[in-house]
Amino acid sequence: MSPLLLRLLGIAAMVGGVALLALAFLTGGAHFALVLIIPVIYGSSGYLAGGILLFFLGIFVLFWAAAESVSEAPAAPLPYSSSPPGSPGTPSSRTSYGGFLLIGPVPVVFGNRPGWLPYLIALGFLTVIAFLLFFVLF
Q: Which H or E element spans position 99?
């Protein structure tokens, strides 16, 4: 099966799982709680069970698609260079990274590019606000 088709199938399964979870919440078959800082969804609805299974099936299919695309891609030859790394004329091997962790309601921002800092802080606080609104409304 082609990796593109697998990706689309995985995304469709995840969207279907989220739709079933929303239906379970709307019909009262699912509930949300916080145990310490861990969000827990519980209930006895068939929609809830189907939504969770479909969502995790989508994640599995997306990992499968990623593995398929890596196995189909031809290996690129490594460039030969007689000059030491970091000397002029050699490509830089510096990678950029960044992200945030939610430890309870506190976003912890990390990364090696200062330009990303405001965006990551804003994304962290928006996530906390969305989480709190979801908790208060449901």
A: strand 98-103
Question: Smallest Cα–Cα separation from 107: which of 123, 130, 89?
Answer: 123
Q: pTM of the predicted model, to two decimals? A: 0.52
CA dist 10 and 1 (Å) reads 13
What tens digit of pLDDT does each residue of 77-129 get?
A: 656 555 555 555 555 566 788 888 888 777 888 888 888 888 888 888 888 88
Residues contacting 32, CB < 8 A, separation 6+: 25, 39, 40, 41, 134, 135, 138
Distances (CA, A) of 33 to 42, 45, 63: 8, 16, 29
d(CA 14, CA 77): 36
> What distance in Å separates the CA atoms of residue 4 and residue 62, rounded to the nearest whole number?
10
